[in-house]
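A quick aside before the break. I want you to see a complete sequence-to-structure record at least once, exactly as it would be stored in a machine-readable document. Don't worry about memorizing anything.
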Amino acid sequence: MEQIMTYAQENAGSGSGASTFWYVVMAIGLWKMFEKAGEPGWIGFIPFYNQYKLCEKVMNNPWYWLRLFTVVIPFVGIILYLYFTFQIGKATAKAYGQPEAWAWGYTFLTPVFYCITGFSSQYSYYGPFGVGDTRTGDARQAKTVDFEVVEKQPVKEAAPAAARTTVPSESEVEFDFHDDDIME
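That is the input. The structure line, written in tokens, reads:
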């Protein structure tokens, strides 16, 4: 038992050091991303609030950050967390004019992709889901919906009640059965 306690004490700091490092890298990337989106950069360093603001900026739904709490549910929680994180990644990619495939990077290498997006001059903020992306042709990477105004077509008027076809009654219908038609 003493060996286990000694091992735990010697190795306790390595995990928290790595976690702190990844959090700082992610926060720096978010800082630059928030500045591009017109928000103060310091928001990137505040736990939970940074995810709230990210969801607000890229999805127009700030409450999507609650997905962080799905990890407390055994097994299903991890699947839900990955699904919701992927959805936020897709929205982030669109909001910054990137291909949807970047959602995989935002899901599994979050701090790295936040830094790439934040520090690269190639990516600009275009609004939630990329709706403000006015680039055309090959320059446009985010998928958006284009609407077309169509002229309203006149509606055909229904035929008068007297001209409508009626269903014949049973006495008016003649049935012609042959022995070949009956299957045994």
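Two observations worth writing down. Helices lie at 2-36, 49-59, 76-95, 102-108, 110-119. Residues 2-139 form one domain. We'll return to this after the break.
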